[in-house]
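Schema walk-through. Below, the input block comes first and the output block second. Nothing else is stored per chain. Lengths vary across the set, and this one has 242 residues.
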Amino acid sequence: MIGCDCNVCKSTNPRNNRYRCSVLIGTPQGNLLIDTTPEMRLQLLRENAKLIHAVAYTHYHVDHLFGLDDLRLFPIALKTSLPIYCTDEVEEIIRQAFAYVFDPATEDLPAGALPRLEFRRIGTNPFEALGERITPIPLIHGRFNCLGFRIGDVAYCTDVSAIPDTSWPLLEGLKVFVVDALRPEKPHPSHFCVEQALEAIRRVKPKQAYLTHMSHTMDYDLLVKTLPANVAPAYDGLSFQF
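--- output ---
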């Protein structure tokens, strides 16, 4: 955190060095990216991910959106526009924040100068991307809307302060549950704290759960000692097969 000299911010443990939250899912038909963080370019380089075939957005906040311009190289390799799966609310913000991408005057610019995007509107119904059935999970993120996503027996629910009653059935039968946990004890207006996340995990009963969107108030080594056996802090570069 800028200007902070706390033990986590000064830590040499790489698991305390956190970029903004994003997920890359490898499928037989290509790579699906969930959210484009401001560090997206660095994240993809770190993971040696050479191509993105589609993007899905949880919501439009800057920490999940503002790496979008670095998508511009992928349509060159795909030889077509990059599919973007998002709600109408997210599309509206993208068109505002990146207005130059959609300016008719830029249509004749060379390939790679701008991201060439194809919006595919989603809502609360399951949709298909890269041959996978993806189920949106409506979440409450303070005063904002946010979607979690379920693919098979894995669910990713970042940026959540409450789970609506109608969304709990969508989380049944999970093997892996990735869930927001911003800070240790004190609830936040827009995010679960650790105890709220653990409460949700106890209700969902996954085989494994990971805490994500963690702030600098949580030291990885200290936190991991306090968690149940089937719960672990996520960290940059964490991967698993499903």
